[in-house]
Design the sequence.
Protein backbone atom coordinates (compact mmCIF):
# COMPACT_ATOMS: atom_id res chain seq x y z
CA UNK A 1 0.00 0.00 0.00
CA UNK A 2 1.26 3.52 -0.73
CA UNK A 3 2.28 5.61 2.25
CA UNK A 4 0.90 9.06 3.14
CA UNK A 5 -2.27 10.82 1.96
CA UNK A 6 -3.90 9.51 -1.20
CA UNK A 7 -4.95 11.93 -3.91
CA UNK A 8 -8.02 10.89 -5.92
CA UNK A 9 -8.10 11.88 -9.57
CA UNK A 10 -11.20 11.93 -11.73
CA UNK A 11 -11.57 8.74 -13.76
CA UNK A 12 -13.97 8.77 -16.72
CA UNK A 13 -14.90 6.69 -19.69
CA UNK A 14 -15.15 8.84 -22.81
CA UNK A 15 -17.23 8.31 -25.93
CA UNK A 16 -17.19 10.82 -28.78
CA UNK A 17 -15.63 13.39 -26.44
CA UNK A 18 -18.43 12.99 -23.89
CA UNK A 19 -18.35 11.27 -20.53
CA UNK A 20 -20.24 8.01 -20.82
CA UNK A 21 -20.54 5.01 -18.50
CA UNK A 22 -18.93 4.35 -15.10
CA UNK A 23 -16.78 6.98 -13.41
CA UNK A 24 -15.08 8.09 -10.22
CA UNK A 25 -15.16 11.85 -9.70
CA UNK A 26 -15.02 14.63 -7.14
CA UNK A 27 -17.68 17.35 -7.20
CA UNK A 28 -17.21 21.06 -6.48
CA UNK A 29 -17.23 20.34 -2.71
CA UNK A 30 -14.60 17.58 -3.08
CA UNK A 31 -17.12 14.85 -2.31
CA UNK A 32 -16.30 11.49 -3.89
CA UNK A 33 -18.86 10.14 -6.39
CA UNK A 34 -18.84 6.69 -7.91
CA UNK A 35 -21.42 6.91 -10.62
CA UNK A 36 -22.71 6.53 -14.12
CA UNK A 37 -22.55 9.20 -16.85
CA UNK A 38 -24.78 9.41 -19.92
CA UNK A 39 -24.31 12.01 -22.63
CA UNK A 40 -21.83 13.95 -20.45
CA UNK A 41 -24.28 14.14 -17.50
CA UNK A 42 -24.03 12.29 -14.19
CA UNK A 43 -27.22 10.22 -13.99
CA UNK A 44 -26.89 8.15 -10.83
CA UNK A 45 -24.35 6.98 -8.34
CA UNK A 46 -23.05 6.90 -4.80
CA UNK A 47 -21.62 9.99 -3.14
CA UNK A 48 -19.60 9.95 0.06
CA UNK A 49 -19.10 12.92 2.37
CA UNK A 50 -18.02 13.48 5.96
CA UNK A 51 -21.51 12.80 7.37
CA UNK A 52 -22.72 9.86 5.33
CA UNK A 53 -23.48 8.31 1.96
CA UNK A 54 -25.99 9.34 -0.70
CA UNK A 55 -27.18 6.84 -3.31
CA UNK A 56 -29.48 7.85 -6.10
CA UNK A 57 -30.06 10.21 -9.00
CA UNK A 58 -28.11 13.38 -9.84
CA UNK A 59 -28.45 16.42 -12.10
CA UNK A 60 -25.94 17.92 -14.52
CA UNK A 61 -24.36 19.90 -11.64
CA UNK A 62 -23.68 16.63 -9.76
CA UNK A 63 -26.28 17.54 -7.13
CA UNK A 64 -28.73 15.04 -5.67
CA UNK A 65 -31.84 15.35 -7.81
CA UNK A 66 -34.69 12.87 -8.16
CA UNK A 67 -35.07 9.76 -6.05
CA UNK A 68 -32.31 8.92 -3.60
CA UNK A 69 -31.37 7.79 -0.12
CA UNK A 70 -28.95 9.16 2.47
CA UNK A 71 -27.43 7.08 5.25
CA UNK A 72 -25.81 9.18 7.98
CA UNK A 73 -23.08 7.95 10.27
CA UNK A 74 -25.32 8.63 13.30
CA UNK A 75 -27.87 6.06 12.10
CA UNK A 76 -30.38 8.41 10.48
CA UNK A 77 -31.70 7.23 7.13
CA UNK A 78 -33.73 9.19 4.56
CA UNK A 79 -35.22 7.99 1.31
CA UNK A 80 -37.32 10.04 -1.06
CA UNK A 81 -37.21 12.90 -3.52
CA UNK A 82 -34.36 15.42 -3.82
CA UNK A 83 -33.87 18.74 -5.59
CA UNK A 84 -30.60 20.66 -5.70
CA UNK A 85 -29.04 18.53 -2.93
CA UNK A 86 -32.01 19.07 -0.61
CA UNK A 87 -34.85 16.83 0.46
CA UNK A 88 -37.88 18.08 -1.44
CA UNK A 89 -41.27 16.44 -1.91
CA UNK A 90 -42.32 13.11 -0.43
CA UNK A 91 -39.88 11.02 1.59
CA UNK A 92 -39.38 9.23 4.88
CA UNK A 93 -36.71 9.49 7.53
CA UNK A 94 -35.80 6.95 10.22
CA UNK A 95 -33.58 7.90 13.16
CA UNK A 96 -32.90 6.33 16.57
CA UNK A 97 -35.54 8.65 18.06
CA UNK A 98 -38.17 9.29 15.36
CA UNK A 99 -39.90 8.13 12.20
CA UNK A 100 -41.01 10.83 9.77
CA UNK A 101 -42.98 10.20 6.59
CA UNK A 102 -44.45 12.96 4.49
CA UNK A 103 -43.59 16.12 2.62
CA UNK A 104 -40.24 17.94 2.78
CA UNK A 105 -39.36 21.42 1.57
CA UNK A 106 -35.76 22.63 1.25
CA UNK A 107 -34.58 19.99 3.73
CA UNK A 108 -37.31 20.86 6.27
CA UNK A 109 -39.92 18.27 7.26
CA UNK A 110 -43.48 19.58 6.87
CA UNK A 111 -45.42 16.44 7.71
CA UNK A 112 -47.74 14.00 6.03
CA UNK A 113 -50.21 15.44 3.57
CA UNK A 114 -53.56 13.80 4.23
CA UNK A 115 -55.54 12.30 1.37
CA UNK A 116 -59.18 11.60 2.20
CA UNK A 117 -60.54 8.31 0.90
CA UNK A 118 -63.17 5.75 1.79
CA UNK A 119 -60.48 3.70 3.56
CA UNK A 120 -59.97 6.32 6.25
CA UNK A 121 -61.64 6.08 9.69
CA UNK A 122 -63.84 9.14 10.28
CA UNK A 123 -65.60 10.54 13.32
CA UNK A 124 -67.24 13.67 14.72
CA UNK A 125 -67.22 15.60 17.97
CA UNK A 126 -70.41 17.17 19.27
CA UNK A 127 -71.75 19.28 22.14
CA UNK A 128 -74.98 21.09 22.89
CA UNK A 129 -74.45 23.24 19.78
CA UNK A 130 -75.56 20.32 17.60
CA UNK A 131 -78.88 20.45 19.44
CA UNK A 132 -79.40 24.19 19.91
CA UNK A 133 -79.53 26.97 17.29
CA UNK A 134 -80.75 30.08 19.06
CA UNK A 135 -84.15 29.18 20.50
CA UNK A 136 -84.60 26.17 18.26
CA UNK A 137 -83.91 22.67 19.49
CA UNK A 138 -82.87 19.72 17.31
CA UNK A 139 -82.40 16.04 17.72
CA UNK A 140 -79.86 13.84 15.95
CA UNK A 141 -81.06 11.18 13.55
CA UNK A 142 -78.50 8.54 14.46
CA UNK A 143 -79.77 6.07 11.83
CA UNK A 144 -78.89 8.44 8.96
CA UNK A 145 -75.42 9.60 10.03
CA UNK A 146 -73.06 9.96 7.05
CA UNK A 147 -70.43 12.56 6.24
CA UNK A 148 -71.40 14.20 2.94
CA UNK A 149 -69.06 17.22 2.80
CA UNK A 150 -65.64 17.79 4.37
CA UNK A 151 -65.90 21.58 4.67
CA UNK A 152 -64.72 24.62 2.76
CA UNK A 153 -61.01 24.28 3.53
CA UNK A 154 -60.54 20.82 2.05
CA UNK A 155 -59.57 21.09 -1.62
CA UNK A 156 -60.81 18.59 -4.20
CA UNK A 157 -57.19 17.57 -4.87
CA UNK A 158 -57.07 16.02 -1.39
CA UNK A 159 -60.24 13.94 -1.85
CA UNK A 160 -60.22 10.63 -3.69
CA UNK A 161 -63.72 9.57 -4.71
CA UNK A 162 -67.14 10.66 -3.51
CA UNK A 163 -67.56 12.00 0.02
CA UNK A 164 -70.08 9.66 1.61
CA UNK A 165 -68.33 8.33 4.68
CA UNK A 166 -69.70 6.35 7.62
CA UNK A 167 -69.03 7.64 11.12
CA UNK A 168 -66.93 5.24 13.18
CA UNK A 169 -66.60 7.27 16.38
CA UNK A 170 -68.20 10.18 18.21
CA UNK A 171 -66.72 12.30 20.98
CA UNK A 172 -69.26 14.13 23.14
CA UNK A 173 -68.53 17.09 25.36
CA UNK A 174 -69.39 16.11 28.91
CA UNK A 175 -68.11 18.86 31.21
CA UNK A 176 -66.25 22.15 31.50
CA UNK A 177 -64.46 23.59 34.51
CA UNK A 178 -65.94 22.45 37.84
CA UNK A 179 -69.63 23.13 37.33
CA UNK A 180 -70.67 23.12 33.66
CA UNK A 181 -72.04 19.96 32.07
CA UNK A 182 -73.66 19.11 28.74
CA UNK A 183 -77.36 18.39 29.23
CA UNK A 184 -77.41 16.23 26.09
CA UNK A 185 -74.47 14.02 27.01
CA UNK A 186 -76.38 11.10 28.52
CA UNK A 187 -78.86 10.71 25.67
CA UNK A 188 -76.22 11.13 22.95
CA UNK A 189 -73.94 8.68 24.72
CA UNK A 190 -76.70 6.08 24.95
CA UNK A 191 -77.65 6.61 21.30
CA UNK A 192 -74.10 5.89 20.17
CA UNK A 193 -74.12 2.57 21.98
CA UNK A 194 -77.53 1.70 20.60
CA UNK A 195 -76.32 2.29 17.04
CA UNK A 196 -72.95 0.56 17.39
CA UNK A 197 -70.80 3.70 17.19
CA UNK A 198 -67.64 3.98 19.29
CA UNK A 199 -68.11 6.83 21.73
CA UNK A 200 -65.88 8.91 23.99
CA UNK A 201 -66.25 11.86 26.34
CA UNK A 202 -64.25 15.04 26.72
CA UNK A 203 -63.73 17.78 29.26
CA UNK A 204 -63.04 21.41 28.37
CA UNK A 205 -60.16 22.56 30.55
CA UNK A 206 -60.28 25.78 32.57
CA UNK A 207 -57.07 27.62 33.46
CA UNK A 208 -58.80 29.35 36.40
CA UNK A 209 -60.08 26.37 38.34
CA UNK A 210 -58.50 23.58 40.35
CA UNK A 211 -57.49 20.71 38.03
CA UNK A 212 -58.30 17.96 40.52
CA UNK A 213 -61.76 19.41 41.08
CA UNK A 214 -62.21 19.56 37.31
CA UNK A 215 -61.21 15.92 36.94
CA UNK A 216 -63.62 14.84 39.66
CA UNK A 217 -66.43 16.86 38.07
CA UNK A 218 -65.76 15.12 34.76
CA UNK A 219 -65.70 11.67 36.37
CA UNK A 220 -68.92 12.31 38.28
CA UNK A 221 -70.89 13.52 35.26
CA UNK A 222 -69.55 11.12 32.63
CA UNK A 223 -70.36 7.53 31.74
CA UNK A 224 -67.70 5.00 30.80
CA UNK A 225 -68.12 1.50 29.41
CA UNK A 226 -65.64 -1.10 28.29
CA UNK A 227 -64.59 -0.38 24.72
CA UNK A 228 -65.32 3.35 24.89
CA UNK A 229 -62.85 5.74 23.34
CA UNK A 230 -60.28 7.09 25.84
CA UNK A 231 -61.26 10.20 27.82
CA UNK A 232 -60.07 13.44 26.23
CA UNK A 233 -58.90 16.71 27.75
CA UNK A 234 -59.63 19.71 25.54
CA UNK A 235 -56.86 22.29 26.13
CA UNK A 236 -57.45 25.60 24.31
CA UNK A 237 -56.04 28.46 26.46
CA UNK A 238 -54.97 31.78 25.00
CA UNK A 239 -51.47 33.15 25.56
CA UNK A 240 -52.93 35.63 28.04
CA UNK A 241 -54.67 32.89 30.03
CA UNK A 242 -51.46 30.87 30.20
CA UNK A 243 -49.55 33.94 31.39
CA UNK A 244 -52.20 34.71 34.04
CA UNK A 245 -51.90 31.24 35.58
CA UNK A 246 -48.10 31.53 35.80
CA UNK A 247 -46.87 30.40 32.40
CA UNK A 248 -46.47 27.11 30.57
CA UNK A 249 -44.90 25.32 33.55
CA UNK A 250 -47.97 26.03 35.69
CA UNK A 251 -50.30 25.02 32.87
CA UNK A 252 -48.61 21.66 32.36
CA UNK A 253 -48.58 21.03 36.10
CA UNK A 254 -52.38 21.42 36.13
CA UNK A 255 -52.78 19.28 33.02
CA UNK A 256 -50.72 16.48 34.60
CA UNK A 257 -52.94 16.53 37.69
CA UNK A 258 -56.11 16.16 35.61
CA UNK A 259 -54.61 13.38 33.53
CA UNK A 260 -53.39 11.48 36.59
CA UNK A 261 -56.74 11.60 38.39
CA UNK A 262 -58.74 10.50 35.35
CA UNK A 263 -56.27 7.79 34.38
CA UNK A 264 -56.29 6.31 37.89
CA UNK A 265 -60.10 6.22 38.02
CA UNK A 266 -60.69 4.86 34.51
CA UNK A 267 -57.50 2.77 34.09
CA UNK A 268 -57.26 4.42 30.67
CA UNK A 269 -54.70 6.91 29.37
CA UNK A 270 -56.53 10.06 28.24
CA UNK A 271 -55.92 11.88 24.96
CA UNK A 272 -54.89 15.54 24.80
CA UNK A 273 -56.66 17.85 22.36
CA UNK A 274 -54.60 20.89 21.32
CA UNK A 275 -54.02 23.01 18.22
CA UNK A 276 -50.93 23.28 16.03
CA UNK A 277 -49.84 26.63 17.48
CA UNK A 278 -49.93 25.16 21.00
CA UNK A 279 -47.69 22.31 19.80
CA UNK A 280 -45.21 24.73 18.24
CA UNK A 281 -45.20 27.26 21.09
CA UNK A 282 -45.57 25.27 24.30
CA UNK A 283 -45.43 21.49 23.98
CA UNK A 284 -41.62 21.21 23.95
CA UNK A 285 -41.75 22.46 27.55
CA UNK A 286 -43.51 19.19 28.48
CA UNK A 287 -41.46 16.40 26.84
CA UNK A 288 -43.05 13.79 29.14
CA UNK A 289 -46.51 14.57 27.77
CA UNK A 290 -45.26 14.71 24.20
CA UNK A 291 -43.60 11.33 24.63
CA UNK A 292 -46.20 9.44 26.66
CA UNK A 293 -49.61 10.63 25.46
CA UNK A 294 -51.60 10.45 22.26
CA UNK A 295 -52.80 13.72 20.80
CA UNK A 296 -55.88 14.89 19.00
CA UNK A 297 -54.99 18.01 17.07
CA UNK A 298 -57.12 20.79 15.63
CA UNK A 299 -55.33 21.69 12.46
CA UNK A 300 -57.00 22.59 9.21
CA UNK A 301 -53.77 22.86 7.22
CA UNK A 302 -52.26 20.21 5.00
CA UNK A 303 -49.60 18.48 7.07
CA UNK A 304 -49.57 16.28 10.13
CA UNK A 305 -47.52 17.52 13.10
CA UNK A 306 -44.58 15.60 14.55
CA UNK A 307 -46.31 14.17 17.64
CA UNK A 308 -48.06 10.93 18.66
CA UNK A 309 -51.11 11.80 16.61
CA UNK A 310 -54.21 9.68 17.22
CA UNK A 311 -56.93 11.91 15.78
CA UNK A 312 -56.96 14.91 13.50
CA UNK A 313 -59.78 17.46 13.44
CA UNK A 314 -59.74 18.26 9.76
CA UNK A 315 -62.72 20.62 9.57
CA UNK A 316 -65.07 22.68 11.72
CA UNK A 317 -67.74 23.09 9.06
CA UNK A 318 -68.41 19.62 7.76
CA UNK A 319 -71.85 18.43 6.75
CA UNK A 320 -73.29 15.29 8.30
CA UNK A 321 -76.60 13.81 7.23
CA UNK A 322 -78.79 13.53 10.31
CA UNK A 323 -77.37 16.59 12.12
CA UNK A 324 -78.46 20.21 11.75
CA UNK A 325 -75.73 22.73 10.90
CA UNK A 326 -71.94 22.51 10.73
CA UNK A 327 -70.12 19.68 12.48
CA UNK A 328 -66.49 19.16 13.55
CA UNK A 329 -65.03 16.34 11.45
CA UNK A 330 -62.15 14.12 12.51
CA UNK A 331 -60.04 11.37 11.00
CA UNK A 332 -58.04 8.64 12.69
CA UNK A 333 -54.30 8.65 11.97
CA UNK A 334 -54.12 5.31 10.22
CA UNK A 335 -56.19 2.67 8.47
CA UNK A 336 -58.23 -0.34 9.55
CA UNK A 337 -55.30 -2.34 10.94
CA UNK A 338 -54.04 0.54 13.07
CA UNK A 339 -57.60 1.36 14.12
CA UNK A 340 -58.18 -2.20 15.36
CA UNK A 341 -54.92 -2.03 17.32
CA UNK A 342 -55.89 1.34 18.82
CA UNK A 343 -59.24 -0.06 19.96
CA UNK A 344 -57.53 -3.07 21.58
CA UNK A 345 -54.88 -1.07 23.43
CA UNK A 346 -56.21 2.42 24.15
CA UNK A 347 -59.94 2.16 24.82
CA UNK A 348 -61.60 1.89 28.22
CA UNK A 349 -61.07 -1.57 29.72
Sequence:
Amino acid sequence: MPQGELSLKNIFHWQQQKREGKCIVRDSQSRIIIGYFHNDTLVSGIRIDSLGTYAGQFDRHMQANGHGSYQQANGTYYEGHWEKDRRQGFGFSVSPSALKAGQWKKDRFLGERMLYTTERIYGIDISRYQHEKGRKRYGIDWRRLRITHLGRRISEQRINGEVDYPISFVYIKSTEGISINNRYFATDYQSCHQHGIRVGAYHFFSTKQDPEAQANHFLKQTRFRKGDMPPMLDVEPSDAQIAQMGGAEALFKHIRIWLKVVEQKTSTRPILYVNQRFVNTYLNAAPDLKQNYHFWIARYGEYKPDIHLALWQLSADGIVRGIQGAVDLNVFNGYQGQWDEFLREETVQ
The chain has seven helices and 23 strands. The CA atoms of residues 121 and 332 lie 5 Å apart. Residues 1-7 have pLDDT under 50 and may be disordered.
